[in-house]
Amino acid sequence: MKKFILGLVVLATINGIAADIKLWQNSTLNKIVQRGELQVCMEPGYVPFEMTDKKGNIIGYDVDMARQMSKDMGVKLKLVPTAWDGIIAALITEKCDIIMSGMTITQQRNMTVNFSDPYIVVGQTVMMRKDLEGKIKSAADLDKPEYTIVTKLGVTGEIATKKFFKKAKIVTFETEVDAAAEVLNGKAEAMVYDQPYNAIFMSDKGKDKLIHLDTPLTYEPLGFAVRKGDPDFINWLNNFLRQMKEDKVIGFSDELYQKWLVDTNWLNRVQ
């Protein structure tokens, strides 16, 4: 009997090891190592996280993160520019290994993809026309039929706009640049979008022209998206983020925060 039980234990152990080996062989992390290249989907239009400079290079907060990630993996980096409305589909169909594109972790998205731990937290804020200063004291004052609020299509800014503005007219645009231009040109009263983008915009094109209502309407943690059923990759990513935070590379007021969200010298490279 003892030999029989021992045999069952050995068999179970062997089966468990075989299952672990198969899981590793099928993991994205193993495929990256075998390929020698990390493929990252991102939409290069979300300032300051990913954008195209004058020379056609993609630069930004997330790009620096991707470079460090590929270096730590010991592989090359390939950025895969992808339209936002198809970026999750591109990941699922293995056009890339990971989405690093300022993506907010939401319960709806989490039904389709898995997320790493957050690497930064942002929220939706409002930029409005300067001539409304004094008349509008908070975002809630903009919720009137005579006001037009703009945002980008298909992002959490659109969700927040529809949630907080029930009476105002809401207009969506394909890009945040087009939405912001609508406010600058006086065709809309305000724009709802991510706090980092709005802060950078206010230090440049919006300076002395718009007012930033910088109290966030929402809590939005940003994370890396990966395909379902890949615990090895998630484990690696979370350990990577933990190390980056302890090394003071990411986090509030740390290296990348200062480089991309405080210092605006990089603006000269993209204008």
How would you describe the overall organization of this protein?
Residues 37-263 form the Solute-binding protein family 3/N-terminal domain. It comes from Arcobacter defluvii. GO terms for molecular function: ligand-gated monoatomic ion channel activity. With 271 residues, the chain is α/β, with parallel strands linked by helices. It folds into two domains: 28-121 and 221-270, D-Maltodextrin-Binding Protein, domain 2; 124-213, Periplasmic binding protein-like II (D-Maltodextrin-Binding Protein, domain 2). 41% of the residues lie in helices and 20% in strands. The protein has eleven helices and 14 strands. It has helices spanning 2-26, 28-35, 61-73, 87-92, 107-110, 156-164, 176-184, 195-202, 231-246, 255-262, 267-270; strands spanning 37-42, 51-52, 58-59, 76-81, 98-99, 114-115, 120-122, 124-129, 148-152, 169-173, 190-194, 210-213, 220-222, 225-226. A five-stranded mixed sheet has the order 10-9-11-8-12. A three-stranded parallel sheet has the order 4-1-5. β9 (148-152), α6 (156-164) and β10 form a beta-alpha-beta unit. The chain is globular. Residues 6-18 have low confidence and may be disordered.
Distance between the termini: 78 Å
- CATH-scheme architecture of the largest domain: 3-Layer(aba) Sandwich
**Overall structural domain count:** 2
The number of distinct β-strands equals 14
Count of individual helical segments: 11
Q: What's the CATH first level of the largest domain?
A: Alpha Beta
Residue fraction in strands: 15-25%
The CATH topology of the largest domain is given as D-Maltodextrin-Binding Protein, domain 2
Q: Provide mean pLDDT, rounded.
A: 90
Helix content: 40-55%
Q: Given the C-alpha coordinates, what overall shape results?
A: globular
The secondary structure category is alpha/beta
Q: Superfamily at the CATH H level of the largest domain? A: Periplasmic binding protein-like II
